[in-house]
Recover the amino acids of this structure.
């Protein structure tokens, strides 16, 4: 039963690490960004509502974001643990997650903060733009996403640090090496992966 959050600037490698860690801990990876992109692609009502925010590199309003997380964490597979990637990103989302966990009688085990310097993450995102063609990976939008992260999400690190939950990991280097660093740091806190990856 492991409940983890992944926080870090755009391009730090959260998505890649999230799926690996989810496998290692045998819990579902819940990415609000993936849920939104799926809905945009399939032109659902939610997708049509959130597309403009995502394309502009702005955050989707908390009310919509909190509602999809509440639904997703209410599904059976999340009862025994989860790894949240890209949520919470605002103080309002932190409060909502708190309410959800409290009403389920559970709490977070750790918050993994993946760090990376700005030049490196911009280079990574521009590369991803070439490979995947994400609409929000253009230079201007990337810059805006970094600003929004610094303004709205970076302050959450203090909140979780004061609760003693933050594990800080250098996100530079090979994917495997970063995963190993995270697994080691979590093991030091008594959080042991159940599956060898
Ligand atoms: P990501 O894949 O996590 O980088 O998310 C891509 C985009 O989805 C973000 O730039 C936001 O527009 C939107 N998004 C994802 N997660 C959230 C969240 N927790 N709160 C608000 N917007 C979000």
């Amino acid at each position: 039963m492991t409940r983890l959050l992944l926080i870090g600037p755009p391009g730090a490698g959260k998505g890649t690490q999230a799926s690996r860690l989810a496998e290692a801990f045998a819990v579902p990876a819940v990415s609000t960004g993936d849920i939104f992109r799926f809905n945009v692609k399939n032109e659902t009502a939610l997708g049509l509502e959130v597309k403009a925010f995502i394309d502009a590199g702005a955050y989707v309003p908390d009310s919509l974001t909190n509602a999809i997380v509440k639904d997703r964490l209410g599904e059976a597979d999340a009862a025994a643990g989860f790894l949240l990637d890209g949520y919470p990103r605002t103080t309002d989302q932190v409060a909502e997650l708190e309410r959800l966990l409290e009403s389920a009688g559970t709490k977070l085990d750790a918050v993994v903060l993946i760090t990376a310097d700005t030049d490196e993450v911009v280079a990574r995102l521009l590369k991803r733009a070439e490979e995947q063609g994400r609409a929000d990976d253009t230079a201007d939008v990337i810059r805006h996403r970094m600003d929004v992260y610094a303004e709205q999400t970076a302050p959450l690190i203090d909140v979780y640090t004061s609760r003693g939950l933050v594990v800080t990991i250098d996100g530079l280097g090979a994917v495997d090496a970063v995963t190993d660093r995270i697994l080691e740091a979590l093991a030091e806190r008594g959080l042991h992966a159940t599956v060898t990856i």
Summary: The radius of gyration is 16 Å.
